[in-house]
Each structure stands twice: as structure tokens, then as C-alpha cells.
Amino acid sequence: MSEIKDFVPRTSLFMAGIRAIETERPDRLFEDPFAAKLAGVEILALLEPWKKEYLENGNSVVTVRTRFFDDFLLSSAAKLSQIVILVARQALIEALELSDSTSSKTG
User: Fold this and answer.
1) Quick one: how far is CA 38 from the chain centroid?
2) Quick one: which of 70, 83, 85 has its CA closest to 28?
3) Most buried residue among 5, 22, 34, 46 by CB atoms closer than 10 A?
4) Spacing of C-alpha 29 from chain mean position
5) How many other CB atoms are found less than 10 A from the CB of residue 35?
């Protein structure tokens, strides 16, 4: 994952990792029970050095932005028949594959 070309497709996994960390906070802005699974062990490990500072210092721009868009999506959902989140399916598949490959190596 050291090359930029590997980073760009994984940005959704990093966002899931940040959502997972925010979910752990007692004063969280949102709760995402699926975020840690989607992020996977590898991404959560990469975020670990940043996690302590984040948990101590409060909300980041990312979590405030996420809360804004979550609220917007929820308020709009009642008026819509379908919501499509692009790339989410592929990111989930990749996360599950990463999770499975990590589990098989350790298990």
C-alpha cells in the first residue's frame, strides 16, 4: 500500500476507519456499527498512531462533514425511492477480501 495508486481506491476504507474510530467516542457525532468491518484490520492498524490524538482532541473536519452528509442523506431519503452510493459495493468487496485474507493468515 506504499504507492499512490494503491491509496486512491482505498480512500473509502480509510473513511470507514475514521467512522469506526468516531463510533468509539462517548460523545460521538454519529455511530456506524459496520465501519470497523468495512475498514478492515489493515486500515485500522494504519490509523492507530493517529487514533489517540483524535480521541483526545475531539472532532475533525472529516467527522463534522460526515455528520452533515449523513443528516442530509437521512432527511432526503424519505422523499426518494432509491439512493445509490457509488463505489461502495466495490469497497465492501475489497474490505471483506482483505478481512478474509488477514483472518486466514492469523487463524
Assistant:
1) 7
2) 70
3) 22
4) 14
5) 21
DSSP state of 29: S
In total, the chain counts a number of residues equal to 107
User: What tens digit of pLDDT does each residue of 7-39 get?
Assistant: 666 788 888 899 999 998 888 888 999 899 988
Alpha helix positions (H), the chain: 4-7, 11-24, 35-57, 61-77, 88-106
Angle at the Cα of 9 from the Cα atoms of 69 and 58, rounded to 5 degrees: 45
**What is the per-residue pLDDT for 1?**
42
Q: Give the residue extent of every domain in the chain.
A: 4-106
